[in-house]
Amino acid sequence: MEMSSLFIDLSTDARTMPTNKMWKAMQGIELSSVPFRGREVVEALMNKACDLTGQAAALLLPSCTMANLIAIMAHADRGDQVILEEGSHIAWSEGWGMASIAGVHPRMIKGQRGVIPNIDIIRAIEDERFSHKPRTKLLCLENTHNASGGTVLSQAYAAVICAAMRERGIAVHLDGARIFNAAVALKLPVRSITQMYDSVVFNLNKCLSAPEGAVLCGSAAFVKKAERLASALGGASQHKGDIMAAAGLIAIDEMVDGISDDHRRARQFAQSIQDIPGIKIDLNTVQTNIVMADISESGLDAAQLLRRLKQQGVAAYLYNQKIVRFVFHRHIGDEDAAKAAASLEKVISLA
Fold it and tell me: What pTM did the predictor assign?
């Protein structure tokens, strides 16, 4: 918890700071104008990613958003139907690139805590009207599911869905931006979760604290296609890849052990605020490092609440005008969590 400040930032885990060891590793990278010189660091990270996920090949990219877009473009052609949960990060938080850039048709299905019922997926695939039937090429799942409060997909559900899609020749991509949180919550190796998918991406920032970067994994053929798409979208880099990889190697090796503390603090925070008048918490959704607080009966809308919390030195995130998100990460200690809960109670009491 190297970064300490009077300001308690619970708005996101995407701004976690690299450790001193990561900074030193990044500063030690020798930049060269020779294309792909010094790629040993990147290759080491890609080998580690393959071992970690159980996939055959990997590609380092600037962000999970770009990786998800490339995965969609690699699996599906323009005009194809792509099925995803209606509250997913790909659907709402990635600039709608799947439509504007990939040119695919998003078929969004309402799920519960990121789980799309198998029967609804099959109906979307087989839906036919006036003899017209969309060609479905891809299903996207998200684990953990951000908008549901960091909920985790069960292994049994994922196995059934992946098998059902495989029978129909439909690929399944996993947005695993926070897959390390899922693995810690399930008490499983990441590989046990990810190896059943056709492709998977995970972030190097967030709980891992690298400054940026995401790794997209899949078959050798898939990654070869993804590499071409990355070049077209500006995702290839001669220099930054080595810098990202230097931090990423340390992040994977050294940052996972602290994730369980983030989960514990999120749970304790949720329990401490659930009895505040006007606040509703579904503790069943507090499975990892995210807490979604329903403030609809507080007398404040989310924007008002966030402004008043900021005056108390606490930042949270506006999900919508009724829901505020709190995200726990390595820069938030027990004392910070307690102060944030007390600040929330104070703001609500003065509403």
Answer: 0.95
